[in-house]
Amino acid sequence: MPGSSDNQYIRLEVISGKNLRVPSRRIPAGIYMSINVDSRRHWKSAISVLSSDKSVSWGDTVTLSSNASSALSIEIKASYELGRMLGGGEVIGELQMSWDELLDHGDHPFDLSFRAVRGVQPSITLKVAVVHAWDNQNGGLFNSLVDCEIARDTDAGHARFAAYATSKTVSHLNDAMEHFQLVLNQCPVSHPDRATALTNLAWARLLGYIRNDVQDIDTTTSLFRDALALRPQHHLDHPLSLYNLTEALAWRYIRKSTVADICEAAQLYHELLPLCPEDTYLRSIAAGKNGVDYVIGRCNNLPTDASDEGIHLRRVVLELCPLGHPLRPRTLDELARAVFARFGQHGSIDDVDTSIQLWRETVSLCPEGRAGRDSYLNNSAVSLVSRFHHQGNPNDLDEAIFMYEEALHLRPVGHESRDSSLDHLGGALVDRFNKRGNIEDMTRAISLNREALTLHPPGHSSRDTTLHNLALTLKTRYNKSQVSKDLNEAIDLYRESLRLKRLDHPRRHRTLYSLSSALCSRFTQAQKNEDVEEAIALCQESLAALSSLHPDRYFSYMWLQEAYLSRYRILHDPVDLSLAVENFRLASRHPTQGFPERIVEAIKWARQAEVYRHESALEAYQVCFELFDSHVMTRSSIISRREAATAVRGAQSLPVDAASCAIRRDNIRHAVELAEQGRGQQWSLASRLRNPVEDIESANPTLAHNYLELSKRVSDAAQSSATITDRAATDRAATEYRKLTRQWEAAVAQIRDVPAFSRFLLPPSYSDLQAAARQGPVIILIASQYSCSAIIVPTSGGPHHVPLPSVTLADLTNLKDRFARAIREASQMTPKQSRTDLIVLSRILWNEIMLPIVKVLEHVLKLKHRSRIWLCPTAAFTSIPLHAAHPFQTKPDRLPCLEDLYICSYTPTLSALGRSRQLMKKRIPPSFVAIGQGQPGAGKGKALLSVDSELELVHKLVPATARHTTISGDAATRAGALEALQQNNWVHLACHGKQDPKQPYNSHFVMRDENLTLLDIMEIDIPHAEFAFLSACHTAVGDEETPDEVIHLAAGLQFSGFKSVIGTLWQVDDSVAKHVVKAFYENMFSDLKDGGVMDCTKAAWALNRATHAVKTTVPLEQRMVFVHIGV
Prior knowledge:
Elements: E1 9-18, E2 30-36, E3 42-44, E4 56-65, E5 71-79, E6 90-98, H1 99-103, E7 110-113, E8 123-131, H2 149-167, H3 170-185, H4 194-210, H5 218-230, H6 238-256, H7 259-272, H8 281-286, H9 292-300, H10 308-319, H11 328-346, H12 349-364, H13 373-391, H14 394-409, H15 418-436, H16 439-454, H17 463-481, H18 484-500, H19 508-526, H20 529-544, H21 553-571, H22 574-588, H23 595-611, H24 617-633, H25 638-646, H26 654-664, H27 668-678, H28 681-688, H29 694-699, H30 701-721, H31 727-752, H32 766-769, E9 778-783, E10 788-793, E11 800-803, H33 809-826, H34 836-860, E12 867-873, H35 898-901, E13 902-906, H36 910-919, E14 927-932, H37 947-957, E15 963-967, H38 974-983, E16 986-990, E17 993-994, E18 1004-1005, E19 1012-1013, H39 1014-1018, E20 1027-1031, H40 1049-1056, E21 1060-1064, H41 1070-1084, H42 1099-1109, H43 1116-1120, E22 1122-1126
Parallel strand pairs: 9-12, 12-13, 14-15, 14-16, 16-20, 20-21
Antiparallel strand pairs: 1-4, 1-8, 2-3, 2-5, 5-6, 7-8, 9-10, 10-11, 17-18, 18-19, 21-22
Helix pairs in contact: 2-3, 2-4, 3-4, 4-5, 4-6, 5-6, 6-7, 7-9, 7-10, 10-11, 11-12, 12-13, 12-31, 13-14, 14-15, 15-16, 15-17, 16-17, 17-18, 18-19, 19-20, 19-21, 20-21, 21-22, 22-23, 23-24, 24-25, 24-26, 26-27, 30-31, 33-34, 37-41, 41-42
């Protein structure tokens, strides 16, 4: 024995405990040690939170007097409160031992083991030492347990409850509940121990309910809920009270399947888990398979709920499944289903985007070989096809087909879900057939649908769906081949599908309007009235089944319109035409359908209104432009905007057809507005983000700042999205871009609320557009399939219409092609050879097109000779050198040509010219840079031997008063050229220019390293830039696919800030171009010796003089090639 315990003090260090299980299985708030020296003196350690491995750490120390008694009692207890305790808690283990037994262990840590609890022996680690002085560390001995009636009843209740938990004797449970009820009765609402009393009684009742010894769960749940209300956020016992309530709710859901219970449990776990530190026992239970995982699993089995509340719950459940959680893929899938279902009801593009992003992650979490991948692929593909229908991006359709193919591969013959993959892939192939016309897609789609139908024999629950899909495929093939057999089979299949669908079937309306479309086609073919009458009735029935904003109402309107129009074509009843137009209107304006579908319907409306000379034609064109504008604005990058604009067949001629329609209705002002609104949309959209706001800043600086800030953010988002190649990242960028766009639109709406700015960024009126003609008339040349004519917008007053009755669109197409051929042939000739074909074509151009216009300029407007005019060509006119119109008469009193009479300039649109004039208000001292690249890199074109001499020539001719630099050779790189463009307001570019006919934004100037593209130029903003001379090929000619967008290098420089630009319509011969360059700059700077200033508005006059001056040295086609654009 180390020493006698008489008249000595013993310091006891309570270090830790392990294998600590609670007999009642209840989750403790913490564990503590209790040492009882005698009936009056007790010591209690701090309450320590139980770890996930069922251990605790205390580190408490107490000094005890060994002469107080001969022995002591050591207890391990579970506390169910971290805050104020009621009673002593539940006993886990108890030991009686003498002081000598305690001191036998020496001064090293030792373990004390207790009786096994649920098969495991708990133990504690202690350390003892004899001290000869009283050490009052940690408070020494104290009477910590309040000896009162409710404490004694609580402890008795814990003891009886533990006995019930281990023995399952119901009398023990009844005793426990009786004790706990007595305590609760003595703890009124304001009592500090009421929450504890409520919880103790509730736990006894809950275990009894689990074991079927108590029948009422509702009262138990209410007790837990009341306790939680008394332990709000930041209360020490709030987390445990949250857990207690989740347990009651989960068990009530198990027995009663009340959906609200499992939903509430998920919400509570969402609050609870962040409050549970890692490695605690409470977290291990709450986050385990019987805790939150059970709730997640049950929530994942709930029916899809597309309401906002249902989706919110799904998001909460997903947050309970962090990365790496085994239930995350299924939970993502369920959230995606709910969001996608809401898209089906309301048509919000944000919802389909979100569902795609969620399913992309789901697929990524299920690699090949893992169960469920086929379903996730299939679901993801469904959402991509829906977005394709809504937005028209073919990349979505291609990706969906790829996913469908993989899903089908994972579902071989005999797989329970093969039928679904067959149907879905078949539908996607039909969509691709409609887009690209590959008959192989259609043939395979029919084969897939027929295989799916064999898997759905009569009586199968999905037979109606497969019948519908096969009918749709056959009807689509009929549209292409006009084989009656396909149409009749489709009608029979639709009828069988409709018979199998209940009246409340969620997709019955689709079969109704699809059958209507097939009957309408048969009526057109066979002209049986019963077909069209039934078609109309079916569409009306489908409309009655749909809510006012359901996206599918669009299709009901569309097919109802088709039925009325078909009947009108046969019976010629004007009422049918009016009803058809009304349904055109409803379909194209239906807000929850995607823009591509609505645009197609608006175009059909315009075309049919033209055919039947209906008064709604102008309204239809206006709707087309509004829809196009909204659709293109949703695309985040410049290139994707053009892709969206070119994807719709028949849309390219809308601007000129609309203007022609207004002209034929004698509304010339509106014709000007429509031609402007429909043309140059790419530039118009981009320029909105650079619109000057000086006037708004003066009136409301806050609004102006907000608008400018959002404009920059939208512009930056568009530029950054253009470099993203990953599809998932592209989707996220598109979603962020739309969010910013909505904020930008809200800022614009706020500005329009100010009376003085009510038309801010709205399509310009005629009076707005007329500002472009301030320095001379603008001549818009309209080339439409319905009529060709010109409109002259004078400096004041109304516009003048100039009919061109002998000119048709076919004539212009022919003239354009002949010009292109004649110019190619002329480029192979020697300078002395006659350009006979060009002369003949220039004469036609004069006689048929420009002479009628000149007569109005001279005799109606009284425009003086040598005045300035601006040509604004549309459609086929954009590829014809209008400025080169010439009578080429040989008699002495020959007529002058167009450029003898007037100084000609071009403008892509009136708005572009107006913006350039507006930016002329601010001028800065001239800074001139000449950029030349005559030695491009390998594969970038032949060497341009005259570039260096051209740069030297320009250097000599630029006035000494201007700051002047030259960049050439190795310094003429893409980055060097971009920097020079931004730092100088006068630019001369001599190099190869390449127009990209397929993607005009990739048109470029050839530099030493990388190409300087049109996109590069558009992304810089140089508001003080003034003049650019583009001595390069093809810098002022757009692409043939979208001529009215006027997408070329010269227009890009004008958009970036250059007010006056010299460009070229075709290939330039650099050896003769320098003659034009020399003559141009000599005229441009001729008056500077007399104290004049560099003035970019003189460029058109200088070019006119230059081409006259070089008539004898420069061939005709090389004089015609240069054009002036801008002020």
